[in-house]
Amino acid sequence: MNRILLILAILSLTVPAFAAHHMPGKGVEVQPARATWNTGYFQEALVRAGLKELGYDVEKPKELQNPLFYQSVFLGDVDYWTNGWFPNHVSQMPKGWEERVEVVGYVAKAGGLQGYLVSKKDVEKYDIKSLDDFKRPEVMKAFDSNNDGKADLTACPPGWGCEKVITHHFEVYDLDDYINPIKAGYSASMADTMARYKAGEPIFFYTWAPNWTIGMLKPGEDVMWINVPEINPLESQMAGKDRMTVSGIAGAVTDPLKTGFVVSDIQVVANKEFLKANPAAKKFFEVFTLPLSDINTQNTKMENGEKSQEDIERHAQEWIAANKEKWNGWLEEARMAAK
């Protein structure tokens, strides 16, 4: 009898301690934010789901423009977001941000990729390696869908940051006489590009990742990333010029690839006081990471009509179910950090 009482006494001491360890965020309210571009909604939903499993009371995310988020997290009005692009976002941070804000982990290392893609069969047929190859008459003719004598590039609408970079490329690489940049609405232009690809025609377009475009047109299978002739950055790109040549890109015509755009890491950004008070949340931010292909796959579902908040939450739960061992490992690491 005494032995049974002793076991019960031990359990009475250890069970509450285990429960507290199991739910380290219990009683803590968390205010996340998310970016205004929907290609970042999926990772936000996943991280929020993780914090909830750790016991945190996570509010609906505030949707904020970049500069407003960075000011808000600096002031502590929001606790974190999963949509940091670095080094691209450094210039948007408030002065002295390092004192109050921390960039944590890698949602997708080198996930913030931008550049030019060409249909794979035409890369092989015409031996296309860079933008300079579009100066060759046979390449210009093959990619000229409107019969103006120039290769057609699905580019960016006026006012987008990528449009400024593409305009710069046309100047420094002397492309105006060879390539016609189509600057209409991007979704409509890409729909036309997709239609031409399905009809077996050559395609040439700009895109970024994560994005539905490379969920539907897979690099290495359907299309290939091509180079700029040389790295010649805009003034605004100078801080990230060393990130304009990158290795290990799936579906690139060369390794490394000269993208002509700064390749960013997608990372969590959080208020330092929040991280200090919540080691479990910080550890989860550190270990959470997604294959770029998984983000692209989810983005493609959104482009195909599954874009309500309910759809996004369902996509997150489906991903968790399909990656349960990895997910539970992250949660356990986070719980251990709170001991």
Structure description:
- Mean pLDDT is 92; it is low at 10-20.
- Helices cover 42% and strands 19% of the residues.
- Strands 5, 6, 9, 10 and 13 form a five-stranded antiparallel sheet that branches. Strands 1-3 form a two-stranded parallel ribbon.
- It is an alpha/beta fold and 339 residues long.
- It contains 13 helices and 13 strands.
- The chain has two domains: 2-111 and 265-337, Periplasmic binding protein-like II (D-Maltodextrin-Binding Protein, domain 2, 3-Layer(aba) Sandwich); 112-264, Glycine betaine-binding periplasmic protein, domain 2 (D-Maltodextrin-Binding Protein, domain 2, 3-Layer(aba) Sandwich), CATH 3.40.190.
- Total number of helices: 13
Give the termini separation.
33 Å
Query: Major β-sheet, in short?
Result: 5 strands, antiparallel
Uncertain runs are 10-20
| Percentage of residues assigned to helices | 40-55%
Succession of helices and strands: HEEHEEHEEHHEHEHEHEEEEHHHHH
- In CATH, the architecture of the largest domain is 3-Layer(aba) Sandwich
Per CATH, the class of the largest domain reads Alpha Beta
Overall residue-averaged pLDDT value: 92
DSSP strand tally: 13
Task: Provide the CATH topology of the largest domain.
Answer: D-Maltodextrin-Binding Protein, domain 2
- How many separate domains make up the residues? 2
Query: What would the principal axes of the Cα set say about the shape?
Result: elongated
CATH 4th-level superfamily of the largest domain: Periplasmic binding protein-like II
Structural class: alpha/beta
